[in-house]
Amino acid sequence: MKTKFTPHLPILMIAALVTAGLTSCSTPSTRIRANPEVFSQLTSDQQDLVRNGRIGLGFSTDAVKLALGDPDRVTTTEDNDGVTTVWHYASYEADGHPLYTGYYHAGRGWWGGPPASFYYLDYPNRHVRDRFRVTFRSNRVSAITAESAA
Prior knowledge:
By secondary structure, the protein is α+β, with helices and mostly antiparallel strands. It has one domain (8-146). It is 29% helix and 29% strand. It is built from five helices and five strands, in the order αααααβββββ. Strands 1, 2, 3, 4 and 5 form a five-stranded antiparallel beta sheet that branches. A hairpin with a 2-residue loop joins strand 4 (126-137) and strand 5. Helix 2 (28-34) packs across helix 5 and helix 4 (44-51) packs parallel to helix 5 (61-68). The longest helix is centred in the N-terminal third of the chain and has 16 residues, at 8-23. The radius of gyration is 20 Å and the shape is globular. The model is unreliable at 19-24 and 103-116 (pLDDT under 50).
């Protein structure tokens, strides 16, 4: 049996994939809906910050994840005062121009596979820069460091 080629089918498939990708983006509101029990434990001031994708001193790791999502990189330092953990939120840049900023550049996109975006290409002078860092001491935010482009 011969199958008939429908020219609209590839367009419909691409539209479905794009729609799935756009609707699965992680935002504070989607993370709040996925974790209502964590959100309900926050004070009203903290809830306002989280809704706006912001954090404050004293926030727990779970509250930071609600507001900002998972970090791009984590570093831990242990010294005589205890353990300090730093969550790094980064952006890719080349020649002073941002290539991409945000959660999906770490290869954790909705497709679940390996990274497949333009910012992974071998751009000359490409580097990763921390947009900001969140420092935790005893699982609470003890410092928030923002960096500006050089």
